[in-house]
């Protein structure tokens, strides 16, 4: 595992980019946006500077334009990027946002969205080579992250070819009026879709199955679209009152993005109910489509996640797929949920250990302007999977 220290730089590995494009990267090196990568080996998950605004400019124009010509991008993506080179910063921020959200949503599950710096060409290891529920979630949250980040960058004025959404002002409600700067989720969605489809490699030898086959391509497109819709369907209407003496004689409203956690939680619940599908080829000129794998399964709609293969075993370590297993994971002895020792430890049992912990306590505010705390020592029980 790797922990990225708190820094204002925005990191994007080649594999992170592939999660957004659907391409399969063969380059075994870190890919970053003209900035230096700092990686330490302590910790168990990504740690980034959440105070850095999403889409914040951290790369100069010349550097951004140079990155548009990266060999990791297809010709279509290079063309898209050249229209507005700073957009790569938003793509990078979206990848970071997606990985952080994935690790939060699955922090207590057997697969905890772990990353592996030992496999820089695919930070999720071979898990993404299986068209499973987990791969479906990664595709969805990645597409959502790009749409979200690009939309936010537009409203901040960091991109030159978009700004506020003026389409909502065509509607004229009776008791309030549109105003302010509505964030343009439609542009963010369109860019996320164009970027993803621009990164698709042409199918070779009419391959049908596998991650690089037609079925996997259709799955990626469906799940990516579900991720974008998860953001758009949760856009919030925000209003502000205007009038004499605090009255609300005029109420001006605009639309803004929800907290990304809202979309992440919705996609995590869709992961649980994802639909098992298969490739259905139809005759004539009618394109192939994904259909329920069995007649008794309902047909998924555009907001559902779909998958093609059962998930691998996340209980035991699998070097081929880069699965760390659950041995050594801390579990909750009293929980009946996914973080409970019975489920997380996969029936292997657990060990209880006692640790001495030193923490800040009895904190108080001292005028002005400090918070002073004492250090308290106590023992804590931890339960660790065998």
TrEMBL record:
The keyword Protease belongs to this UniProt entry's keyword annotation: no
A Pfam family this chain is assigned to: wnt
Signal peptide: 1-28
Keywords tagged on the record: Developmental protein, Disulfide bond, Extracellular matrix, Lipoprotein, Secreted, Signal, Wnt signaling pathway
Localization: Secreted, Extracellular space, Extracellular matrix
GO cellular component: extracellular space
Major localization class: secreted
Keyword Nucleus applies: no
GO molecular function: cytokine activity; frizzled binding
BP GO terms, sorted: canonical Wnt signaling pathway; cell fate commitment; cell morphogenesis; developmental growth involved in morphogenesis; muscle organ development; neuron differentiation
Described purpose of this protein according to its UniProt entry: Ligand for members of the frizzled family of seven transmembrane receptors.
Family recorded in the similarity comment: Belongs to the Wnt family.
Name the UniProt record assigns to this protein: Protein Wnt
Protein's gene: LOC107269018
């Amino acid at each position: 595992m790797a922990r990225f220290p708190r820094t204002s730089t925005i990191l994007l590995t080649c594999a992170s980019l592939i999660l957004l494009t659907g391409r399969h990267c063969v380059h075994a090196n870190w890919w970053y946006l003209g900035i230096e990568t700092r990686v330490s080996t302590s910790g168990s998950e990504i740690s980034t500077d959440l105070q850095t605004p999403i889409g914040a400019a951290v790369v100069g124009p010349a550097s951004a334009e140079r990155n548009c010509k990266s060999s990791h991008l297809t010709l279509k993506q290079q063309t898209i990027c050249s229209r507005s080179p700073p957009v790569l910063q938003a793509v990078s921020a979206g990848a970071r946002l997606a990985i952080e959200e994935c690790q939060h949503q699955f922090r207590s599950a057997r697969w905890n969205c772990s990353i592996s710096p030992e496999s820089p060409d695919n930070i999720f290891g071979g898990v993404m080579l299986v068209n499973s529920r987990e791969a479906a979630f990664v595709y969805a949250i990645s597409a959502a992250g790009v749409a979200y980040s690009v939309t936010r960058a537009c409203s901040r004025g960091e991109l030159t070819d978009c700004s506020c959404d003026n389409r909502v002002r065509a509607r004229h409600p009776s008791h309030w009026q549109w105003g302010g700067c509505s964030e343009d989720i439609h542009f963010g969605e369109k860019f996320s879709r164009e970027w993803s489809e621009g990164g698709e490699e042409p199918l070779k030898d009419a391959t049908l199955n596998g991650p690089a086959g037609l079925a996997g391509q259709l799955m990626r497109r469906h799940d990516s679209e579900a991720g974008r819709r998860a953001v758009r369907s949760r856009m919030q209407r925000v209003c502000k009152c205007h009038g004499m003496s605090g009255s609300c004689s005029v109420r001006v409203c605009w639309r803004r993005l929800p907290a990304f956690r809202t979309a992440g939680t919705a996609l995590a619940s869709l992961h649980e109910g994802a639909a098992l599908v298969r490739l259905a080829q139809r005759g004539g000129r009618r394109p192939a489509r994904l259909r329920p794998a069995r007649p008794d399964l309902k047909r998924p709609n555009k907001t559902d996640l779909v998958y093609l293969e059962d998930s691998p075993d996340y209980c035991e370590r699998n070097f081929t797929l880069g699965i760390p297993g659950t041995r050594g994971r801390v579990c909750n002895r009293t929980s009946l949920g996914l973080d409970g020792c019975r489920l997380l430890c996969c029936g292997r049992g657990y060990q209880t250990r006692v640790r001495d912990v030193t923490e800040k306590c009895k904190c108080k505010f001292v005028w002005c302007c400090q918070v002073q705390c004492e250090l308290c020592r106590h023992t804590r029980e931890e339960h660790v999977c065998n």
